[in-house]
Amino acid sequence: MIKVGIVGGTGYTGVELLRLLAQHPGVSVEAITSRSEAGVKVTDMYPNLRGHYDGLAFSEPDAGVLARMDAVFFATPHGVAHALAGDLLARGTRVIDLSADFRLRDIAEWEDWYGQTHGAPELLEGAVYGLPELHREAIKKAQLVAVPGCYPTAVQLGFLPLLKAGMIDPSQLIADCKTGVTGAGRGAKVGSLLAEASESLKAYAVSGHRHLPEIRQGLIAAHDGEVNLTFVPHLAPMIRGIHATLYGQLVAEPEADLQALFETWYADEPFVDVMPAGSHPETRSVKGNNVCRLAVHRPGDGNTVVVLSVIDNLVKGASGQAIQNLNLMFGLDEHLGLQAPALMP
Ligand SMILES: NC(=O)C1=CN([C@@H]2O[C@H](COP(=O)(O)OP(=O)(O)OC[C@H]3O[C@@H](n4cnc5c(N)ncnc54)[C@H](OP(=O)(O)O)[C@@H]3O)[C@@H](O)[C@H]2O)C=CC1
Ligand SMILES: CC(=O)N[C@@H](CCC(=O)OP(=O)(O)O)C(=O)O
């Protein structure tokens, strides 16, 4: 059994890790932290987990306890993993960080977007960006994985086949994205109240969102050149889900069919589902599930390619992808803990 700890166990991604790991045959959750709920039994706070974690209680983060684990997930706000990861890695514990602490390679850019001093620049070189569809081999050898952000997962998976094949103009990319309210975390915020977020749809951070540099970094590396991306996130009245509508401009008449390009590109990917031509994937088709569903369209056979990409922000956009990374890091079957189909309706 692989012994794991979770720092930040009361938040939405923390409890989603617990839900998914309850079905993982090779992992035992031995430590889970919360400063505000220390001493509370996990099943008292989350009765859906009764029968799975009956002996487990939240405790204050303790480096000594966490270092006894084989792996520790950080499901915490930005900056927390910076403070604890170095010590754990030095003591042989692998770290899987769901926050953005190790996602950006450029320290100055990270500090600019996250408004804090980078707390562990010495660890960056060894950090692997945990998008298995791009970095599977590096993840297998990694001690420290930076799990991609939710929007960056949906957007990169949708654009990658077209950019890698040189089919679209990298200077004219648009990502129009919608997310559910769990993307904002469990902490109380006026914008997440039922009366504020339901029956309404609004864009936010149009002039700049912290996922922009992360998406740009991935796309630049993928096609080995600059990209110009307009990224507009929206808050949609749903609990989970990301829907990304991606627009690219063809540089020439494609020799191969776009549908075939996507199907070939993702043929061996266990968690990317290219839907049949003409499909319109729905966020509910991935609810609770680690899959990214994609559809590619070329309206009116014109110059614009439209890719539709849906994920569950808490699963392929966070905790499911984190477990996919754990499976790869420990040489396990990549599907373990991630096999249940989506909830529909
Ligand atoms: N929600 C989402 O859809 C996604 C989230 N992420 C990222 O995952 C991380 C967690 O997100 P989410 O679960 O939504 O967050 P939440 O706000 O729901 O939960 C945060 C958790 O971190 C703990 N925490 C807060 N501050 C500290 C601290 N200083 N030291 C130790 N623990 C702390 C909290 O417990 P307590 O305060 O009691 O200790 C709580 O359990 C964030 O970095 C987020 O950006 C990534 C992709 C998607
Ligand atoms: C609704 C809402 O606020 N969504 C969050 C989504 C980001 C997120 O979840 O965090 P990561 O950077 O760790 O992926 C936001 O826009 O900041």
From TrEMBL:
Q: Catalytic site residues? A: 150
**What is its EC class?**
oxidoreductase
Pathway info: Amino-acid biosynthesis; L-arginine biosynthesis; N(2)-acetyl-L-ornithine from L-glutamate: step 3/4
A GO MF annotation of the entry reads: N-acetyl-gamma-glutamyl-phosphate reductase activity
Provide the primary localization: cytoplasm
Q: What is its EC number?
A: 1.2.1.38
Signal peptide: which range, if any?
none
Location in or out of the cell: Cytoplasm
Domain Semialdehyde dehydrogenase NAD-binding per the UniProt entry, residue ranges:
3-142
Question: Which keywords are on file for this protein?
Answer: Amino-acid biosynthesis, Arginine biosynthesis, Cytoplasm, NADP, Oxidoreductase
Among PANTHER family, the record links this protein to:
N-ACETYL-GAMMA-GLUTAMYL-PHOSPHATE REDUCTASE, CHLOROPLASTIC-RELATED, N-ACETYL-GAMMA-GLUTAMYL-PHOSPHATE REDUCTASE, CHLOROPLASTIC-RELATED-RELATED
Function text: Catalyzes the NADPH-dependent reduction of N-acetyl-5-glutamyl phosphate to yield N-acetyl-L-glutamate 5-semialdehyde.
Protein name, per record? N-acetyl-gamma-glutamyl-phosphate reductase
